[in-house]
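User: I'm writing a tutorial on reading structure tokens. Could you give me a worked example: one chain, its sequence, then its tokens, then a sentence or two explaining what the tokens reveal?
Assistant: Sure. Here is the example chain.
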Amino acid sequence: MFAILLLFSTFSIGGDCVIVGKLQDAKLIGNISETIVSQTQQQCICQMLKSVDSISAVNYFSTTQICQLFSTSSSGLIDLQLSANSLVLYTNQSIIANMFSEFTK
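And here are its predicted structure tokens:
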């Protein structure tokens, strides 16, 4: 029994980890790479992580279950707006930080 527990813990420790940041009640404004409908928040995160090389941020709207995916190759992230019942999910913190640095100059 102990050997089985040790085997499972070895596999779980060896996995990679991706940190997903969240901004509640906010949305990104810019060039949307793709819009996906009828998605849960978890499915939206999976879509972003599947294309981690090209998608760095997602708007998720909980009331309509819509994901808007934003590409890192697109220079179209223009603004961050307050928006109730929406969520910005991101894997590339530098893009979000650069947007905030524009406001503090």
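What the tokens reveal: The longest helix spans residues 2-13. The helical segments are 2-13, 41-50, 93-104.
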